[in-house]
Fold these 2 entries.
Entry 1:
Amino acid sequence: MPTPDFIVKRIQKAVARPENHRYPDYEGAAFLRKAVAKYYERRFGHKIDAEKEVLITIGSKEAIFHFPYAFLNRGDYAIVPDPGYPVYAISTNMIGGRVYKAPLLKENRFLIDFDRIPESISKGAKIIFVNYPNNPTGTVANDAFYRKLVGYARKYGLLIASDFAYSEVNFQEKKTPSMFDYDKDKQFSVEFHSLSKPFNMTGYRIGFVVSNPYIIDALKRLKTNMDSGAPTFIQEGAEEALLKGDRAIKKIVDVYKRRRDVVVKTLDRVGISYNYPEGTFYIWSEVPEGYNSISFVQTLMEKTGVIVTPGNGFGEYGDGYFRISTTITDKRLVEAMKRIEKFLS
Ligand SMILES: Cc1ncc(COP(=O)(O)O)c(C=O)c1O
């Protein structure tokens, strides 16, 4: 979907102003950090210090990738969800850290089961990555999960790196839980936010991180040596989105909800099991009898021209699943689902 018009217009004006052609403020412009604080209070009910507790990033991927560089030493473990967004494990591996894959299983509603993590790993770990609303499963974590998570992190002295890229793509009535509902003083949690998903701004590369001043400062020191910040005219667009974007978010999320319903109705008709998505724009589905992830995806592509993502691309525990993404137009989605239905019947 295109970026909402009011955001595009603000950026068009901003890019024409010569003062925006200079290097940006590395940690993010003060006006955007203030907008983040207002947005946070409005959407999540938490007061944050715009000066010390926010860092503007070049999308959330950049921030997530750099996070282990700031906090892991060689040999330290990061606990990452499997299936999961691949960047957590790749970044950890690239700096010589070790990865423990915490399985997200159907019987546990695709939530991490802390009791399954061996004591030796918990003791050797520094970071645990979590991502709810979850890519690829579509699960939104509940209160009980967050309480356990905080208890676990406190016990072993872990940093909780919460990938909150889909914070706004939540179909439930209740607001998406924030780490800071549970870790109220931001003692050991970090939230990674993205403007890509709620405002259709994937191509602009803009996001932000919220945490305590110590963590923000460490990430800032690393980042200012690696990049020079997000372009100021993009930051102006982000300010517009965060201050005035609530209606736009609702419109976008309604579209994904409508598309989710199109997909699940078809899957119900053809007897494919799936995790009913509480958020995100993905439908995590089980491959039919006689296939694995790869053979199913390949056959579907060859027979119907429809491409879905093989579950094992998200980790070994993703095998046996495929992921449908609803980021195409309604018309194309309906056509794709018709072809899938024909193929499977
Ligand atoms: C779980 C998850 N986290 C982070 C990102 C990165 O988003 P961005 O870098 O556009 O903010 C994505 C993108 O697909 C994602 O699925």
Note: The chain has a mean pLDDT of 97.
Entry 2:
Amino acid sequence: MISADLLRRLRNDLPMPVTIAALGREGPPSKMFAGYFRFLCPHCGEMRATVNPRNNLAHCFTCKKNLNNIDLLRELDYDFPSAVTLLERLLNQYQAQQTKTKTPSPPTRK
Ligand SMILES: [Zn+2]
């Protein structure tokens, strides 16, 4: 049973660039453009799907479609349960790494 809370975390808490980096050759080609992460839109094939870091949604400026992590994997021919399993594993890895690398930042002096 897949909970709504898990789905929400997979959509919101796992940055799309992390998912795409983890997919490697299996995922869409991507690049940084003007500080934004862009990747090849699976709908129209243009390199204009751009991740909005505020809501972790990719918006394609060519075909105007929106994609989240789950949509992206569905486009890559994952069925829904496999997409959720993979994203859950990536999210756990990502969060484990975040806690490990989280070091107290030195006080900034003005
Ligand atoms: Zn598109």
Note: Residues 82 and 93 are 17 Å apart (CA to CA).
